[in-house]
Amino acid sequence: MSHLLFLPGAGGAAEFWYPLGALLPAQYEKTYLNWPGLGHQAHRPGLDSLDALTAYAAAQLKSDTVIVAQSMGGIFALRLALLYPQTVTKLVLTAASGGIDVMRFGASDWRPAYRAEYPNAADWITAARADHTAEISSIAQPALLLWGDADTISPVAVGKHLASLLPHATLQVIAGGTHGFAQERAAEIAPLVQAFLTT
Fold first, then answer.
1. Structural domain of residue 137, as residue ranges?
2. Is the pTM of this model over 0.90?
3. DSSP character string of the chain
4. Is the C-alpha dihedral spanning 72, 75, 78, 79 positive or negative?
């Protein structure tokens, strides 16, 4: 049975994924990761960059790991899929940035509201940029892309672009879904994720 590694967005809290995880079968081993220094999470020395957090997440990988990632967590999901293609077997990306320039697809700038909500979050997170456009087409793992059509932070156009780059991707659009739909409407997406896991 697959190991599910849940990666939150820039809010950093593992709890984002608890509603969905609770609805997936108990036989899956589940790991919920916090991002130290992001959101309201405590800072940890040395975990102060995208590279450092990639290594932090990589330490949680086990054989046959499916990565389930929200928003900024998609950057790490794609990095891990590229770095560990024998270990990461599938990807579930929700409202993700995925290491592409989302602003060119009409995304609103999340940084001012983020800094206002999380004044103690690490400074590097709002300055970090990741562009994996050139590498995404080499990701061979199957990917389920879930996007809300009412999301201004990662519009559906971002999901469509990622679906065009990933060789084995399926895009499902959640009507009325905002940026946090994966938590707010976990009961609606759980069957989609479960079906993907068992194919």
1. 3-197
2. yes
3. -PEEEEE--TT--GGGGHHHHHHS-TTSEEEE---TTSTTPPP-TT--SHHHHHHHHHTT--SSEEEEEETTHHHHHHHHHHH-TTTEEEEEEES--TTS-GGGGT----HHHHHHH-TTS-THHHH-----HHHHTT--S-EEEEEETT-SSS-HHHHHHHHHHSTTEEEEEETT--TTHHHHTHHHHHHHHHHHHT-
4. negative
Nearest C-alpha neighbor of 70 from the set 141, 5, 161, 165: 5
Which CATH number does the domain housing residue 127 bear? Answer: 3.40.50.1820
Q: What does the pLDDT look like over 102-150, one tens digit per residue? A: 888 888 888 899 999 999 999 988 887 777 788 899 999 999 999 999 9
Please enumerate in sequence order all residues whose Cβ is within 8 A of that of 160, keeping only pairs 6 or more positions apart, or say none: 171
Query: To the nearest 10°, the Cα dihedral for 46, 115, 185, 167?
Result: -60
Tally of structural domains, the chain: 1
